[in-house]
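re the bet — no i am not wrong, look at it urself. input seq straight from the record:
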Amino acid sequence: MAETTHHYLIFETAGGFCGIAWSDAGITRFQLPTKSAEATERLLLRRLPDAEAGAPTPAVLETVAAVRRYFHGEETDFSGVELDLAGQDTFFRDIYAAARRVGWGRTTTYGALAKELGVGPEAARDVGQAMAKNPVALIIPCHRVLAAGGKIGGFSAPGGSSSKARMLELEGVNLAPPPPAQQSLGF
């Protein structure tokens, strides 16, 4: 079997420097923003050490433009981006497909995704593991998948849960607790 060639590009957005890697079959990796091009490149190459900087295809350029729009706060849909998830477990691919159906400004939970896949909420931990290992965060919107009770949960990208919250805020999702139903009597 021939080894897949991966190319990558580091680019700037309103959120910082992102990285994208691709093969002939589609996008293979996406690196969420960091403060420097060097840090982004280092993180991307940690996952794809044999990748080479390359000239992006029209499809990659389209995805880069969509990412830039996203970090400017424009509603963006990545569901049509062609991905190369070769080497991913079949169950994880199913989880990723379900996560891709969670649109802009909407959220779900690990348990709800598991239930949607017909495996029941007890598989929520598996969904969480898939999200943590998501090779193309943002394009597969793992930031829209929350812990039970709508809590933010973990996020393995640079900045952790704060980055997840900022991304959701870009989409208009308010994670603050609701205001109290009854006001204080003031005494």
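see?? The helical segments are 37-47, 58-71, 90-100, 110-116, 124-132, 160-170. told u. also Strands lie at 7-13, 16-23, 26-34, 52-53, 108-109, 145-146. so pay up
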